[in-house]
Amino acid sequence: MSNLFTYTLRIADSSLILGQRMAQWCAKGPTLEEDIALSNISLDMFGQANGFYEYAAQLDGTKSADDLAFLRNEREFFNHQMVEIENGHFGHTITRNYLHDAFNLLFYTKLSESKDETLSALATKSLKEVKYHLRHSTNWLIRLGDGTEESNKKVQESLEQIWQFTAELFEMDEIDTELVNAGIGVDNAALKLEWDEIVNTTLKKAKLSRPKDVYMATGGKKGMHTEYLGFLLAEMQYLQRAYPDAKW
Questions:
Q1: Which of 172, 196, 222, 237 is the most exposed place for a label (fewest CB within 10 A)?
Q2: In 3-state terms, what secondary structure has residue 28?
Q3: Would the pTM count as exceeding 0.90?
Q4: Which CATH class is domain 3-242?
């Protein structure tokens, strides 16, 4: 397994798992307009995941994109832990998405400069969608935070619960370092300052308090996950595992 394959797989996994979470909002959105918006975001994430899985499959040479998505167990997934946590109420989903969207905008902007032409092209293609995702989650976070006393309280509680997963976004390991040195990957740690500025500005507008960095979760890129991922994968992979290689 090459480091470039693993790196590509990590990006694909985070997109797929968040896409699956967002798909769970289909027909459950607070308004018809938001139902459609959340479902479209899900489709965007699946599209991004597919592009990176196709490249990972090409690098691997033995597995297809579908194999990578549907025939691995939870310890073989390398997504950010943040994207696998349950949706909760609408404000909880918005809070999670906002924190991840802000990272994605910075990450894909840098990845679009990669010397790897395929990664660069996939990142550039994803950027238009990512910009919309961040605009959507930003507008809603401000609207909820600066809304009623109840809505402010709910998203503040969500922020406190989800914050522990933010540090993982900026972690670097030997694979990241190798690909950064080769001009292929992104220096995640270098994104932290700008992410802080974006988040702090939004939280101020939303009248929300930034949580303190107390206990910060880690391990996603090493295959360590929350209790939620196994249940999500069981639902997502059921059909493929029940009817292997089924043709439609």
A1: 222
A2: coil
A3: yes
A4: mainly alpha
